[in-house]
Amino acid sequence: MIKSVLNNISISKLCVSVPDNYRSVKNDWRNDEKEISKIIKNTGVQTRYVADESLCTSDLCFESAQKIILSDGIDPESIDGLILVSQTPDFFLPASSCVIHGKLGLSKSCATFDVNLGCSGYVYGLWLASSLINAAGLKKVLLLSGDTVTKLCMENDRSTWPLFGDAGTATLLEYDESANPLSFVLGTDGQGAEKLIVQNGGFRNPGRPELYMSGPDIFTFTIREVPPMVRSVLELSGYEKDDVDFYAFHQANMFILDFLSKKMKLDKNKVLISLDQFGNTSSASIPLTLVANKEKLSTDKRLVLCGFGVGFSWGAVAFEAKNLEIHDLQTVEGK
Amino acid sequence: MNKVEFLNGLEEIMELDENSLAGTENLKDLEVWDSLAVLGFIAMIDNNFGLTLDVKKIMDCVSVEDLISLVSKYLED
Q1: Cβ of A220 and B35 within 8 Å?
Q2: How do strand A166-175 and strand A140-148 relate by DSSP bridges?
């Protein structure tokens, strides 16, 4: 497992946008009380937000980024890095981050690129953005992470359609010598690549893209890798388990979240949840969970953020947030 | 965990009546043996024996007795 401690980086601002198309399990499966209660019991998801055809991940991320820039008075010229973490880009090429760069009117001297990761992607994105500040001398990096996974799900697939939601997020990271250290651990097991996959629609297999997931394989991967990852990140940061104020895990499904909390003997009140309201939003799920629980984070808190899934890929970061400004959740209308 | 407790655990996962499983049942005949039941089974084995079973081995099981045989050496008398 990669371990790195990065200094002088402040995670300063956070904004999340969801589509205005609100769906509830009750409405989607009207009149079928048995099916409704089974789905809610199995997934833990009651409601979620689903992008229509006119809304892409980049639109949701753009709105989140724009909110930070406009409402916090950030000079677009001062942003020297832009990263988009997503597995649902607008096009094969160019990178969606370049499209967003143009719409935001950022400087030509801004390093901009996409990263293709999902459930672990937000933590990887924080690590990359921090590394650019720490090692490459950048001063302000906008990290965008988001997905519209519902576009990869068939409405008749009861294992994926009720579980996933859509969201796009923006996080501002800045050079700050007074910031607390960020402790990262990261890992990969490519042997699990085919267990959570969209087989078609790329160059290997042309065709309609559709999400496949093997729940049992993902679950055993989670049992195997996540508890050691959390132990490692705690050890690296020097925190004891109870020193941490809140844990924000990737919102895979409620069964997995409950199992992990019990296995690691975490205080349930410290494990933040957004799955019930928003579903599994892939690379957006961790920042969305922070926004959904923003009232608990109104003062500086010690946090562990932990992503795991598609790849298989995993990453966690432990830090004490300082003056993290969390915007209210935004909704974005379809066009 | 002994064999009876193991079967009771499986019944709970599949929401079957207590003591309704004999062990000889074919998994295909149990409608409630779905992917979520498999997750519950993996969790039960992890909780009780600290073992993470190989998913393929679980999927290769034909009967309840085959599931038992995956952990038979850990079951108490």
Answers
A1: no
A2: antiparallel
- How many structural domains is chain B composed of? 1
pTM for this structure? 0.95
Map out the domains of chain A with their CATH numbers.
1-335 (3.40.47.10)
Q: How many CB pairs under 8 A join A and B?
A: 33
* pLDDT digits 0-9 by tens, A141-197: 999 999 999 999 998 888 899 999 999 999 999 999 999 999 999 999 999 999 999
Nearest residue of chain B to residue A42 (CA atoms): B36
Among A187, A171, A174, residue whose Cα is nearest residue A83: A171
Residues A204-256 pLDDT 10s = 999 999 999 999 999 999 999 999 999 999 999 999 999 999 999 999 999 99
Measure the CA–CA gap between A159 and A150, rounded to whole angstroms. 12
Residue B25: other Cβ atoms inside 10 A = 17
Alpha-carbon distance B42 to nearest alpha carbon in chain A (angstroms): 7
- Report the SS3 class of residue A148: strand
What is the domain-level CATH number for residue B60? 1.10.1200.10
Provide the domain limits for residue B68. 3-74
